Amino acid sequence: MIDKALPVILRKPSPLLTGPFQSGITDPQWPVSPPEAEGIDQQRYAVERAGRINPQAFLTVVATDVSANSREALVEVFRRLNRFAQHEMRKPPSVSNLPVLQQVPTTYRVTVTIALGSKLFETAEGHDRYGLNGLRPRWLKPMPRVIGDSYDPINEMADLLVLVASDHPYVNTAIARSIAHGFVDKRLQVRRIEQGFSRPDKKEFLKFDDGIDNISNANGGELDRLVYVRTEDGEPDWCVNGSYLVWRKIRENLPIWETMSEKEQETAIGRSKSSGKPLSRKSTGPGGMTPLYPDPKDARDGSLASHIRKVQPRRSGLDLLGISDLDRRFLRRGYPFFHGLDETGKIQCGLLFLAFMRDLRKQFEWPVQMWQTNPDFPVPNTGPDTLYGKGILSNVTGGYYFCPPASPQGEDFVGSGLFVG
């Protein structure tokens, strides 16, 4: 949609395959400033691109356990998985999935991101399988149950989560198949594979733009600041430049949603369906996409139970813990999914929700438990987030994970800092 509105078609940014961070978290990313070319709509670039991620077209989530019987065997599994990931991200596109005479793209922008689950450090029974529990990331634990869950997170925990993203679905399928069939390492035992896609207009099945006010580096580098662990965070040394990952598969109940009028849908979300702008009386930021709530208890700025007011009240000043509401934001990377019919004949569709953040407790658990699902926030009897309160959304699987920093040069691998010393 953007490229049609701009006289100049900009080349999509490429993944970052070198640097301190794993690929596929805050990249591919548009430059903060547009390239020097005539015809670029500067205002639209600022609203929709500047410093923002440009997610690939397809996502595959591979949840896998590890059957390595020793610490040394686990290192070998990590090495093989890292070599495989690096090979897939760096190899040139194949012509095998293209029609005859069609031009071969220079890249499918492949990223393979590896995340570790709490079960790798300590099982639900309290067993430290590989002697790593003393190095567990500070806030990594099993995901607690909340309003809207239709599953038990304890039963869904995986040792590793591998996120595969690219601009071609066959690429994702081939990578997921290699992991599932043991071509990478037979000790990787895949328990779930989920596949999602993106739309050019960024909308999902509710027909709203997911993450329209996502964080970006155009605002003083807040993307990197809010996503990656720093030395002062009290984490184990190996976690620096890593990121916490919250993964959820969120099912959307379209029969309920589609009985609601457009005005009711906008009230539930807190934004205009056509423009994406907030329903607040005043707004700020590029294109006016960021709401302003002078008083979080004032319903004149939209329903107090609307999604955007429950997940980010944007109060002025600091809270009782000395933290600004704006520092409790995180990076969203969501992909719609469509998985046909369930056993009752109902459509299965929704959003594969990925959220990356520097501090799991501050940036995710607090907003979810104290705001989104708290029926008495911001005032008594407000109710939970309307989308969950009315059964429009339900969480069907998910978990907490930690993405280690990128592997250094040489023989190291993603997660190698766990085994130093």
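Second entry:
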Amino acid sequence: MPEDWRPSASLGTLRIRAEALARVRAFFAARSVLEVETPMLCRGGLGEPHILALRTMLTGGRHRYLPPSPEPAMKRLLCAGSGPIYQITRVFRDGEEGRLHNPEFTLIEWYRPGFDHHALMDEVEALVSAL
């Protein structure tokens, strides 16, 4: 067995994380914001020059990308009339590994059609306070 078989997070940390995620879900459920899941294999990257997607190859030589953000897929849902939506998902970014950066991390992204930037700032403050 390898020397580094132990998890990198303690059970206490995992419990705190699980509680925080439950609170995020309760926060958005109380506001009738729908939780969605978007695909984890994408045909293209994000299209932003400073965010690099991780590429993988499927059988037959077809390339796909691990999403650096759920933004494009979530905006398609908005265009289809989804209304307010949020997603808690893993995202992957190449070229961002270091002491303070990990190429894989959890991201919370949400969209509130009709909200202006003041309403969104208020909601961010309320979400952080709920945690």
